[in-house]
Design brief:
two-stranded antiparallel ribbon; Cytochrome Bc1 Complex, Chain D, domain 2; 14 helices; globular; 2 domains; 2 strands
Length: about 375
């Protein structure tokens, strides 16, 4: 027969009961506690990944903008609409064939994939045509930096024999004014101008359109923690992104090799001039048809001989052939040559492949509007 509970019997059972209560409470608190973080001790994989991300954010910041702004050419919807039409306009070219889109077709990532482009009346241009995607964020335009920005580049193209072929800006302006429908578009884009159809406004409109040609990539997702262009960068880990482990390894190799000495900032290049062939003459490896003196043509200063604007590496996987003369068709070959002539390093095959894998993560999405052909007046 069970004895009734009494203070004495409870006292005898207090020890076991207390143990059970403590164990139950410990289990309950453990269930509520957050999961232990991944190993972030120095030398761990997680710690190394965090270090690479932190370094990448310092080297490649700030984040890519939605639109590349300009203090001298505010981007408006009217300018962008007009600029897109002018980008495809062939009737102002003396041969009736050339337009901006001829050398910069969007279906090919705004590069024509030729060693050097074919211009007005089938004239061969002296240098490779780089992509115009994200180019509005560069320090200048053209390989030699002889155009101060995308607006200047577009304006000057009107009266040059290679692009549109007009003898004077007035000739190009008259050709534009003769096309019915452009006047109201120029008036809407430049409401303060009495005579808005000018070469300068042609450049401003085309430039405004080009300032919208921003291509966010998987690498940007990695840097910003999955934020879209224009949103604040997210601190901490990389968040959601589409970079593969091979590409992340390539980023680490890119940083360790020293490539970021020139290819840095938001555009992974495009912000400085540098001698092509810091360690060895570039033509020993590129097998180009001729030796280009680069920016020396512009400044006539000996220190600028063989100096070029450092190209952006955004979308580089899609814009072969490479270098100012288009002399190298393969991306891994271009990576190896840069290691040799700029850094004095003979990159092994695994290193070349890793860096090329990282560069593929810089391929971005083309703006939807860029892929739609405009209806011209």
């Amino acid at each position: 027969m069970k004895k009734p509970y009494s203070p004495e019997t409870l006292a005898g059972q207090r020890g076991p009961i207390l143990v059970l209560v403590i164990l139950a409470a410990s289990a309950f608190m453990a269930a509520l506690a957050p999961a232990a973080p991944a190993n972030t001790q120095p030398g761990s994989t997680a710690a190394q990944g965090a270090d690479v991300l932190s370094q990448a954010r310092q080297v490649f910041g700030p984040p890519l903008p939605q639109v590349i702004s300009s203090p001298t050419n505010p981007v408006t919807s009217e300018k962008v609409r007009l600029g897109k039409m002018l980008f495809y306009e062939t009737r102002i070219a003396t041969d009736g064939v050339v337009s901006c889109a001829k050398c910069h077709p969007f279906e090919r990532y705004a590069a024509d994939h030729l060693k050097t482009s074919i211009g007005n009346d089938c004239k061969k241009t002296p240098r490779n045509a780089p992509t115009i995607l994200n180019a509005a964020g560069h320090i200048s335009s053209h390989w030699s930096g002889n155009r101060k920005d995308v607006e200047d580049q577009a304006s000057q193209a009107l009266a040059r024999p290679g692009p549109f072929g007009a003898a004077t800006y007035q000739q190009a302006e008259s050709a534009l004014a003769a096309i019915s429908g452009y006047l109201p578009l120029f008036q809407a884009a430049f409401p303060g101008d009495k005579d808005p159809i000018t070469a300068q406004n042609f450049g401003a409109a085309v430039g405004a359109f080009e300032r919208t040609l921003v291509t966010p990539s998987p690498f940007d997702e990695y840097l910003t923690g999955g934020k879209k262009p224009g949103q604040a960068q997210q601190g901490g880990n990389a968040g959601q992104h589409r970079m593969s482990q091979n590409q992340l390894d390539g980023l680490k190799t890119f940083l360790e090799t020293g490539c970021t000495g020139c290819h840095n900032g938001t555009y992974i290049g495009g912000q400085m001039y540098q001698r092509f062939g810091m360690v060895e003459p570039y033509w020993h490896y590129t097998n180009g048809e001729s030796t280009d003196v680069g920016r020396y043509d512009v400044t006539k200063q000996e220190s600028d001989r063989y100096v070029f604007k450092v190209p952006s590496l955004r979308n580089v996987e899609k814009t072969a052939p490479y270098f100012h003369d288009g002399s190298v068709a393969n991306l891994t070959d271009a990576v190896w040559i840069m290691g040799k002539v700029q850094l004095g390093k003979d990159l092994a095959e695994p290193e070349k492949q890793k860096i090329a894998a990282f560069l593929a993560s810089l391929t971005g999405a083309l703006p939807d509007d860029a892929l739609k052909l405009p209806i011209l007046p």
